[in-house]
Amino acid sequence: MSSTIEGVFDKTMEKTNAWLKEVEDAMGWEDRHKAYMALRAVLHALRDRLTPDETADLAAQLPMLIRGFFFEGWHPADKPRKYRHKKEFLQQVETEAPWLHDEELERTVTAVFNVLSSRIGDGETRQVRMMLPSELRELWPEAAL
Fold first, then answer.
1. By residue range, what is the domain housing residue 48?
2. HEC string of the chain?
3. In this structure, which of 32, 55, 69, 110 has its CB flanked by the most CB atoms within 10 Å?
């Protein structure tokens, strides 16, 4: 039994590290913690823009460890937040990742959206993307889907 549990944890660590490596590579970073903080900040801003039902649907596609920090601090009662403009979404990301420079913010969001596109199903990716306002969808190009 314990080897099965260890296998589950090993697998989620492996998947999480692959996601983080993909963010690092896209951004040209060599800093796993920075990639984690950026991934977390973008996922939280995205999560807060989605309805609770869509948040749960997206979470079901995430590796167990990422799902854990995706839900960290979430309060569904006041969701979704109505970010109508890209600037509002970027400000939310910057709240959790203030070390990102202005020129890095959009690239980071796009990098995380591309990781989502490559790692979760096309149907869920399209569904989440279509729930976003058009200005925000610009950061998640359909070509990545």
1. 2-144
2. CHHHHHHHHHHHHHHHHHHHHHHHHHHCCCCHHHHHHHHHHHHHHHHHHCCHHHHHHHHCCCCHHHHHHHHCCCCHHHCCCCCCCHHHHHHHHHHHCCCCCHHHHHHHHHHHHHHHHHHCCHHHHHHHHHCCCHHHHCCCCHHHC
3. 55
